[in-house]
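User: Please predict the structure of the protein below. I'd like the answer in structure-token form so I can feed it into my own downstream comparison script.

Assistant: Understood. Taking the following sequence of 483 residues as input:
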Amino acid sequence: MNLVSKVEQTIEEENLMQPGDVIVVAVSGGPDSAALLHILFALSGKWRWQLVVAHVDHMFRGEESRQDAQFVKAWARRLGLPCEVAHIDLPFYIEESGANPQAAARDKRYAFLHEVAAKYGAGRIALAHHADDQAETVLMRMIRGTGPSGLAGIPIRLPEKNVERIRPLLRIYKSEILQYCQTHSLAYRLDRTNLERKYFRNQVRLDILPQLARYNPRLPEALNRLAESLRAEDAFMETETRRWFDRAVRARPYGYALSRDGFLGIPLALQRRLIKLILSYLSGGMDLVDFRKLEQIRIASLQKEPANLALPVCGFIEFRREYGSLQFRRTDTQTGSGPFDKLITDYNQSCSLPHAEAEFRLFERGDDFFSASERARERGGAPARTAVFDWERLALPLRFRSRKPGDRLDPLGLNGSKKVKDIFIDAKIPPSRRERIPLLVDAENRVLWIPGLRRSRHALITGETRMLLEVSVWFPGPFEWEQ
């Protein structure tokens, strides 16, 4: 099978492209991208593809870089293909930002390729990574330390920003590419920086792989088989992780939360993956932590003591365990933070409390609603969505506010009073949640009701009650103050 047929077979097997697709082809001018463009151009008539050539001049090599760009533009012109070229002063950007040179070049290159895709309405960006690149990547990750996802290597397809990055040559070796270029008399450019050993990848390519090949001459093939098998298994594990996320994790204004009991039920093989997935969602896809940090969070999630702990993850994310609640929080967004105090002026209305992520509905009720008061009296001091008060025994106006130091409640069914702080502790309300729980207080600053927790013995319904006030709480999700 010739190389064009092999690449076409990969495209069909992996569903990399469809007939009629608009495809941005990233062309550096080297042999790999030269072969990629030549092969896709040879297939484009049959598949009705519209190809767009894109080239980035990183300005690392001065005149050589400019000549690379001119070479790519001239070749695209001969093929009758549109060509977009970006000149990016990477040396200046790296000096100003302190970014890693290779990472900065990659990020700027991909950003430009996505801009070109958007301009032409392309759904695919074709990259020229090949099987030797895959072997080098897997070995580099093994040396640095990685998990199964890392050993899966470079993905053959990767959706990103409504565009899919595809690598049709990922199963083709460099020797095959060079032979193809020779057979078809393809001219190409050589990048001298590929021989500089200051880059780790070049050290792996030029020194480490040749040394290891003394023990296994087919080492690149073995590393590619490893990546291929782990890629399928990793995809399965990722699907299972997302299922557990949908089942166990709840979105919160500050980030994400799940119960410790729920986490205990997740298979060990998926616990680290779930933590990593949550952190990825919080960071917008950034890879924030290594294995040690993941394991530190996982072990902290399993422990019972201390009841509450906080663990910094990075500059803007922290992990908290508060009683049975595991929380992943962005510390740079303080939704609904700070004390609140809302005066009630209309007792037949809905009252929104963004700080508490809740809404309260108040209704004055007359004689026709005394059946509700009987039910309320039967509930006693148990947690409830609704509290009912004797209207004429209330000291108006009422208000909803956050707790204050020294707040006490006279619990229904008990003598004396109890600190609100102790009620929260007994109910195992997480410390981060206590400041946002609304208290219903009267004009004398007495706490009448802590929704979901306790009701005071003030303004109880009696047989002499003629008018009552019903207060109901509503907010998304289960009726609990845990998160």
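That's the full token string. Residues 372-383, 477-483 have pLDDT under 50 and may be disordered.
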